[in-house]
Amino acid sequence: MKIILTNDDGIEAPGIKALYSALQEFSTPIVVAPETQQSGVGHQITLDSTIRVNEIEEGRFSVSGTPADCTRVALNHIAPDACWVFSGINSGANLGTDVYVSGTVAAVREATFHGCCGMAISQYIAKDHEIDWDITRHQVVQLIKTLIEHDLDPGYFWNVNLPHPFGYETKLETKFCDLDKNPHTFSFDRKGDELAYISNFHERPRQQGLDVDVCFSGKVSISRIAI
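and the corresponding structure tokens:
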């Protein structure tokens, strides 16, 4: 099984290193990831300049573009016979309407366009906490195994959000659920002609049983999303 691994936090991010380690249980992934941080770029692709691809070492490529660019480069230029594209592990959740702006999610949506299976994985960060990436890596292995073996119809991909990990022995409960389409509540802090978003991610609206509520309640939210 040939796997492509990408993200939107950049090729040196701890989350992609954790996911690379977890995927070793199944196959050695080919890493094709942005050379710099690309969070929030959605499904943007690079049209106004060339894309630089640098093979850092065997099977590990940095790309001067977006996550969607990375998937296109990987499936067209580097590993056209890949059967899975994984994206993540993102530092922070991608829940509900986040999937429309997330570069993490866009990378696997792009893969699905091209007939490849895709799974985006994100790690929710609880308020006033930090991620222990080794615990996340430990917890994600069985989850990946379950979803690889689960039927995934053509035209669909997985969007997975892990609750904040508080220990190796924490047993994660999973729930298949739909996206919560409630918009974020936000305002702007105005300084002269400049505006800055003000939003409290942890207090966003949530509907019981949908992905935001599931993840915030301490379960793994698994959403099957159509392209």
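(Above: one complete record from the training split.) The helical segments are 14-23, 67-78, 103-113, 133-149, 211-216.
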